[in-house]
């Protein structure tokens, strides 16, 4: 029986501290938004939820730490899905409390909530990828290509969080109820799925990872983030006169659309103009080399005396 790989304890501790500290800060928001006897009930409820979450996290984080030096990221996807699922539920209740109490114009607290999410969510993704622990990626150029791709994922996460933050930051004129709900849950789904797609691309590549073959995430992000969020911001700016729309991120979406279309066209042109051996080399690089199996020696039957 093959023994399990050793657990990277610093990686486990770092991810656990980041997750639980962000959860505790979300709980502080929920508790401070309630008053009187309801505040005690909310405090007990969030504490029980955190204890249950910590019990599950104790096993999942250890599994993630055990696979950090391997080419697999299956448990990292589970941990990311679990974290975002619970975190966004708390963010939803915080957003609803701010919406119900429109007299509260605590701008600093709302901006701090946006800053907290914009730090913890991308940092956890970088920790789960653990590119510095990819010892099987030995070429410096290849590791830099992977790091550049991860940078685009982090920027996309900030783009999604910026749209979601428009719901709880102070606003003069609120959006319709259906538009707010649709915007929140659209960002919720993107935060759940897209980073898992990026982690699965890294996992499916195996030991001999080939960065230029990781094309699934760029295609999905082009449609779901760069194009659709551009229409969301444009609609908020034109129809609802929302002054909080980020013009910088709208420019980022336009540039990302142009750059990704050019990269897709260049990649397709390279495949069409490449010699026949190019596809064989890509397949050879993406599949780990198997050790040659020794041929069994023929068994000689002993001479039998009649």
From TrEMBL:
<comment type="similarity">
    <text>Belongs to the TMEM121 family.</text>
</comment>
<dbReference type="InterPro" id="IPR042314">
    <property type="entry name" value="TMEM121"/>
</dbReference>
<protein>
    <submittedName>
        <fullName>Transmembrane protein 264</fullName>
    </submittedName>
</protein>
<keyword id="KW-1133">Transmembrane helix</keyword>
<dbReference type="InterPro" id="IPR032776">
    <property type="entry name" value="CECR6/TMEM121"/>
</dbReference>
<keyword id="KW-0472">Membrane</keyword>
<feature type="transmembrane region" description="Helical">
    <location>
        <begin position="42"/>
        <end position="62"/>
    </location>
</feature>
<dbReference type="Pfam" id="PF14997">
    <property type="entry name" value="CECR6_TMEM121"/>
</dbReference>
<feature type="transmembrane region" description="Helical">
    <location>
        <begin position="12"/>
        <end position="30"/>
    </location>
</feature>
<keyword id="KW-0812">Transmembrane</keyword>
<feature type="transmembrane region" description="Helical">
    <location>
        <begin position="113"/>
        <end position="131"/>
    </location>
</feature>
<feature type="transmembrane region" description="Helical">
    <location>
        <begin position="214"/>
        <end position="232"/>
    </location>
</feature>
<feature type="transmembrane region" description="Helical">
    <location>
        <begin position="74"/>
        <end position="93"/>
    </location>
</feature>
<feature type="transmembrane region" description="Helical">
    <location>
        <begin position="183"/>
        <end position="202"/>
    </location>
</feature>
